[in-house]
Amino acid sequence: MRTENLTESAAADTPKDLRSWLAHLAEHGKLAVAREGIDLADELAAVSKRLERDRAVLFPKPGGHDIPVVANLFAARDWVADAIGISEDQLLPRFIAAARTPLPTREVASGPVQEVVHSEVDLLKQLPIPKHNERDSGPYITAGLLIARNPRTGIQNVSIHRCQISGPNRIGVLLLPRHTLAYFRMAEETGGALEIAIVIGVHPALMLASQAIAALDEDEMEIAGALLGYPVDVVKCKTNSVRVPAHAEIVIEGRILPGVREPEGPFGEFPQYYGPRANREVIEVDLVTHRAQPIFHTIVGGSYEHLVLGGVPREATLLQHLWRSFPNVLDVRLTRGGVCRYHLAVQIDKTADGEPKNIIMSAFGAHYDIKQVVIVDKDVNISDPEEIEWAIATRFQCDRDLLVISGALGSKLDPTTKNGISAKMGLDATVPIDAPELDFKRIHVKGEEQVDLASVLQKDSSAAFYRILRGE
Ligand code: MN
């Protein structure tokens, strides 16, 4: 019965949600279910990490809590494409198109996310909030969409922030210098709090859209609508004017307090290091709503899910940025070794010598996180780190093809930067335009791709080997 309901919710006439994605994963053998009672501190994250490149994992009754937790919504890059029903090669163009043609949300009077209302808030009692990496300061909400409204225009912003549980109704939050912080500064200037909601348990398209590098006052929920192909249904919060997805699992309503800063951190982050403890903004929670039987989504800090969720939307933004000046850019990849943020590989159909260095400079300008750019030709597979290294090994000379820029803005979470001041490195690993044809001709054995091993090899190689030794 339960399974039927899940499958029904994936049908075209009902909106996609977290459950429809989990049902899809379950049907394809990609959802593991843990035994009941896995500990919320460390153990849940440990099991998730062991499965991070393999399967999503659902934890029933974690730490004895009634609400189950799920992790690893993406265990491979092609799951991201699968979540929006396209092939992996369509992923970046589709994301770019969605960001260009956002679809406004549709306000509805009520939704499943408000089936249960807690006006007395005690976060750790009401929600199964895990502690993830070893040196984290404690339990964190890591997969919550923080929705805020521009106090002047009412336009909403959607982003993900790490949220430390600092008290029964108190959350310490890290706001990097982007849109939530801009809205909060507007509110704080007039002495007011910024109304917000933290939304937990949504369809992957909403998670992905939240990571789009959109402009201020471009509502990421409208990008989610364009990705899904229909408007996202939203309901008004009960204690403030923020609109939240009606088919989410859990909503925490609250305010970022003006003039208040309290210690937050350390917290294990995407560079595979801990972000430090410091005084940061504070959310006071007014109300919690959720479905009758909600599912809590968590992301282990620095896990593959964390990397790929931020990586793919950034790739789309970078590709779009580069296309403005260089239509011969074919594809981009933020590599896993570069924590899906710092190292960019760009595949081009080269038209002129020198052009790769222009593309490198353009990529550095596109996002301050980019620390290294490698430009390769169209015959190099940028999804394969060995191919990229091969291109550097055989098509790059550092005294001629290396570009170094000092003292630029980088990522503050990179521990080698000095308060975010970072050097940048660009590598042109492309073949010179006028190179003789055979100099850079990749060797190839004729017929390799067509070999049918089943028809070429003997079935029992060991027996065949001894027959040959015996001279039979
Ligand atoms: Mn934004």
Residue-averaged pLDDT: 95
Question: Ions, cofactors, ligands: which are bound?
Answer: manganese (II) ion
Give the overall form.
Answer: globular
**Number of continuous helical runs:** 15
- Largest beta-sheet details: 9 strands, antiparallel
Q: Which residues form runs of ≥5 with pLDDT under 50?
A: 1-12
CATH class of the domain at 87-299: Mainly Beta
Rounded to an integer in angstroms, the radius of gyration calculated over CA atoms is: 25 Å
Which fold name fills CATH's third level, the topology of the domain at 87-299? Pnp Oxidase, Chain A
CATH superfamily of the domain at 87-299: Electron Transport, Fmn-binding Protein, Chain A
What does this protein structure show overall?
- Among the domains are: 87-299, Electron Transport, Fmn-binding Protein, Chain A (Pnp Oxidase, Chain A); 325-432, UbiD C-terminal domain-like.
- The chain starts with a helix and ends with a helix.
- By secondary structure, it is of the alpha+beta class.
- It contains 15 helices and 23 strands.
- Mean pLDDT is 95; it is low at 1-12.
- α5 crosses α9.
- The chain has helices spanning 2-9, 18-27, 43-50, 77-83, 91-100, 123-126, 179-189, 204-209, 220-228, 304-325, 355-366, 385-395, 398-401, 453-456, 461-469; strands at 31-33, 56-59, 69-71, 106-107, 116-118, 140-141, 144-149, 156-160, 163-167, 170-173, 194-200, 233-236, 243-245, 250-264, 267-268, 274-275, 278-290, 296-297, 329-334, 343-348, 372-377, 402-409, 421-429.
